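Continuing the batch. This is chain 6 of the set; chains 1 through 5 are on the previous pages. Same settings as before, nothing changed between runs. Recording input and output for traceability.
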Amino acid sequence: DYIRNPYMKYPEEKSSAEFIGNIMVIFRKNQEEIRRDIAKRDEFIRWLTEEVNRCSYELNRKNKELIEKEKNIALGHLVATLAHKLGTPLNSISGHIQLILANNKLDYDISKRLNIVNQEIGRIEKVIRQALDVLILDRYKTERINVKEFLSQIVDFLIPSLSKEAESVELIIAPDISDVYSDPDMLREVVINLISNASEAIENKGFIRVIADRKDDDICYIKVIDNGVGISGELKEKIFEPFFTTKHKGKASGLGLAFCKEIARVLGGSIEVESAVGKGSVFTFFFKDRREGKI
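Output for chain 6:
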């Protein structure tokens, strides 16, 4: 009031001191309220920023999941169509081979080769059924697997077909993983795919190392390491997508790693990759040990 009306009588000294003191008290009080309001505003802004970031992250994650589901649906339809288209001629071929094999007068060598062809046809049919189980039915079986014997058989089977640049294939089995309970057919497809990919990535002589161990009591892993050409950071984000491949056109379908990823999901695990261009790659396939009491 005094400031608004300069013509008012100047207060006595004591009254003036009290007047100024009261103003300072009110000023400090208002200053504290302003500080509290600013702190509340800053806290709200931090919370709002965190919520926006969280919602943005969740939205991106959901979008990625939706895109993956759409791709998997398309992949499932493709596999179902192929199963239908290939099933009939494969059954017909197998039937004719069995009829020929029923002839006891066949040369031994011819008979042996026809048996091999028939077995491979059976394997193709099994792979198709397995793909349907994984991509459409989420179905698997659980059997006891001797890990050392299981992986040794796969390596022995693959060695003749591996690249000549792969000079050695080393197998390391940790003592804690002598036996596991999972689907052997699905695991076999994953290991074959990862070792074959490692072989094709090697240039100018190199090695492949296969390691089996436990992450914890419930989760086991199979790790395939190579010192091949490696994968760039940009491509690492795409290699598990259906129909994406880094190989030359016509050399691969781009379904191998996508199929491995789906198998990992069905077997209660995941698949990860570490790689650097020119230094090689490490693929780690995690899966659940489904022995009784651990399911």
